[in-house]
Amino acid sequence: MRQPLALLALTLSAALGTAAADKVATPVPIGIGVAQTSNTALLGQEQVIGARFAEKYINARGGINGTPIKLVFQDTGGDEAGAINAFQNLITKDKVVGIVGPTLSQQAFSADPIADRAKVPVLGPSNTAKGIPQIGAFIARVSAPVAVVAPNAIKQALKLDPKIKKVAVLYAQNDAFSVSETGTFQDTAKAQGLTVATVQKFLTTDTDFTTQVTAVLNENVDLVIVSGLANDGGNLVKQLRQLGYKGSIIGGNGLNTSNIFPVCQQYCDGIIIAQAYSPAQPSANNQLFVKEYTAQYKKAPPQFAAQAFTGVQVMVDALRILDRKKKLADWELSDLRVALNTQILAGKYNTPLGAISFDKEGELNQAAFYVAQIKMKDAKTGTFVFLK
Ligand code: 1QQ
């Protein structure tokens, strides 16, 4: 059967993410594609909270010059296929103006090219591996790269214990972020004059780390550095302590959530983790964010929530400027997506992360970074204590 030309054109444009006639919906749909299920939800959960909080916070202040926003959530799960599917739904079905997501760099390397080809701007809320902004012209991030965040943890560990000499490094070899972060950790350790005595690999799906822990214990190291995700990383720390390791531990960004407490329990105590966000960041914007977030959730905002909030805020700040040039409801969706990408990269933003902007590739410019240490009160309750 012959397909009428008009129908063919419609199918084609739908496949590209917009139909010719698509306008921007009201309330303005912003896509959130993060992990709401799977082990990766230990990390994604805080992003959902941060994004939902941003929606409420922004709409309470008039949204985009009087027009409310509406977040559209698509669960990516923890793998590449889930992220691709979520991004496709956000782009073609939900017709979002832009996407905040995905959770993992490992997912970003697969899903971001889809948004880039469809000319839909993406802000990575937690994609810290090397190379993320370079995926394409429509890809930027509000999550500072491991190269600038991770070294702070080693410097802080040396401040706490200047006698550290020998280091063991462990990383999840099936995860792009973990591979990238361990590279930074190993380079920094050597640059600080430390000896990397052993490098051990594992998988994010592993639950038994006896082999790696035995290798670490054989080297008599003073510091162990773990680059993995929340469940594997938490179990690894727990088994290190249970098998008798007594030295310092640095966890990477994949362990940067209180959702690891049920995994490593009292053994989480003492883990040192670099932070791209601090509730103490003194800007008026952050202090108001912290006040309202704390009032609602009875605890200070964690990094992943603050970064997801920032992703939504940056999209909204940029949309406000475009809306002043031409009311958002009058734009063609495909034109607005392109203009939004340009505006995101051009702007300056006062966010919970402080004053931020982007370079022309979409890499984040952010001024201040921090280090926290986990203090467990018992097997269940703990806090991230920020170090000076
Ligand atoms: C990345 C990360 C993860 C640990 C975020 C949850 O930094 O995948 O890039």
Automatic annotation (TrEMBL):
InterPro entries, alphabetized: BCAA_transport, Leu-bd, Leu_Ile_Val-bd, Peripla_BP_I
SUPFAM superfamilies given in the database record: Periplasmic binding protein-like I
Highest taxon above the source species: Bacteria
GO biological process, one term: amino acid transport
Domain Leucine-binding protein stretches: 27-377
CDD domains assigned to the protein according to its UniProt record, in alphabetical order: PBP1_ABC_HAAT-like
UniProt keyword list: Amino-acid transport, Signal, Transport
Signal peptide interval: 1-20
Matching PANTHER family: LEUCINE-SPECIFIC-BINDING PROTEIN, PERIPLASMIC BINDING PROTEIN OF ABC TRANSPORTER FOR NATURAL AMINO ACIDS
Protein family membership: Belongs to the leucine-binding protein family.
Protein name listed in UniProt: Branched-chain amino acid ABC transporter substrate-binding protein
Organism of origin: Deinococcus ruber
